[in-house]
Design a protein that fits this description.
The chain has about 350 residues and is an alpha/beta fold. About 35% of the residues lie in helices and about 15% in strands. The chain folds into two domains: about 1-270, TIM Barrel; about 280-345, Antifreeze-like/N-acetylneuraminic acid synthase C-terminal domain (Type Iii Antifreeze Protein Isoform Hplc 12, Alpha-Beta Complex). It has helices at about 1-10, 30-45, 60-65, 80-85, 90-100, 115-120, 135-145, 160-170, 195-205, 220-225, 250-270, 280-285, and strands at about 15-25, 45-50, 105-110, 125-130, 150-155, 175-180, 210, 230-235, 290-295, 310. Helix 2 (about 30-45) runs parallel beside helix 11. The N and C termini lie far apart (about 60 Å).
Length: about 350
């Protein structure tokens, strides 16, 4: 949990916090869910995330009971499909224990206040709120009152709506991370608008990350290069599986590659501190110039600028140290074209 704590407190930990979003891609199978957790652990993610809905609270009855033939394996109506995909409390407890055993944090998206109550019984490391919850003031306030670590996606929201959401969490002194998000599935590259990461940071002075829905994962890696402190991506065992999110999810090899690239990008981005690195010193010693004798310098001669030139390697007297030898006398004869050292003079 240390990396999560560092992120939620706005500190820069040694790596971006990566949430592997299993979501609904378990297809109501504990075996598939555990296989997804295995993939997240192998990839080097920091957390795995699932979703919890109270189906009755999702929509009005006419929508819930409408015929839905998208996934006949799950049900014939929207209600049946959604109910099929919900795990019980006992199943979630098994998944939580399995996740912890793999060294991952266990995060769940709460879609309603009853789901929050359910997850409080379960005990989660952090809560997630989907983009469409940014205007659900009842849910925002209910969760903020718990003062639990919470991540809020910001897709589909106007800044004034986000102002209201952030104010609710601040009013209750509740820890919050914002994720820039574009709620288009998939998100065209031209609409990713990653510049919003810094806009959100400047506006709210909160930790900010990115929840991506693009095909592939290039924008997610770029977001890390732009100092996203947290990223979230859907993943699946197989994009051809039946279900809501499989097609727009990363397969195991893609998730593994994405996390690897994220870790490399952070190494590449560095700290912004200008210093000569250990590996640079090797090149510096070889190619920087040092003070050398232009011609023979007889013993007892006072060294002046016209007597020296500057040549490789960089293991002798650098230009910034020249003042330490100018005006001093040579202890002995110094041949022409020889690298000078401070101990040659007195």
């Amino acid at each position: 949990m240390k990396k999560w704590i560092d992120t939620i407190n706005g500190k820069h930990s040694d790596s971006c916090y990566v949430i592997a979003e299993a979501g609904l891609n378990h297809n109501a199978s504990l075996e598939i869910a555990k296989a997804l957790i295995d993939v997240a652990a192998i990839a080097g993610a920091d957390a795995v995330k699932f979703q919890k809905r109270t189906v009755e609270k999702l929509a009005v009855k006419s929508v819930l009971d409408a015929k839905d033939d998208r996934f006949p394996e799950f049900g014939k109506t929207y209600r049946e499909i959604r109910e099929h995909l919900e795990f019980s409390l006992e199943e979630y407890r098994k998944l939580k224990a399995y996740t912890r055993a793999k060294g991952l944090d266990f995060i769940v998206t709460a879609f309603d206040t009853e789901a929050v109550d359910f997850l409080e019984k379960l005990g989660v490391d952090a809560y997630k709120l989907a983009s469409h919850s940014a205007t659900n003031l009842e849910l925002l306030d209910y969760l903020a009152r718990l003062r639990k670590p919470t991540v809020l996606s910001t897709g589909m929201a106007e800044l004034e709506e986000l102002d209201r959401a952030v104010e609710i969490f601040r009013r209750h002194d509740a820890p919050l991370v914002l994720l820039h998000c574009v709620s288009a599935y998939p998100t065209p590259l031209a609409e990713c608008n990653l510049a919003m990461i810094n806009v959100l940071k400047d506006r709210y002075q909160l930790p900010v990350g990115y929840s991506g829905h693009e095909l592939g994962y290039l924008p997610t890696v770029v977001a890390v290069a732009m100092d996203a402190q947290m990223v979230e991506r859907h993943f699946t065992l197989d994009k051809t599986m039946v279900g809501f999110d499989h097609k727009m999810s990363l397969e195991p090899d893609e998730l593994i590659s994405m996390v690897r690239d994220i870790r490399n990008v952070q190494k590449i981005r560095g700290t912004g501190e200008k210093r000569v690195s250990e590996t640079e010193w090797i090149t510096r010693r070889k190619y920087h110039v040092s003070m050398a004798s232009e011609a023979t310098i007889p013993a007892g001669t006072v060294l002046i600028e016209s007597m020296v030139t500057w040549r490789n390697p960089g293991t002798g007297i650098p230009t910034k140290m020249a003042h330490k030898v100018f005006g001093k006398r040579a202890k002995h004869d110094i041949p022409a074209d020889e690298l000078l050292s401070i101990d040659m003079f007195e």
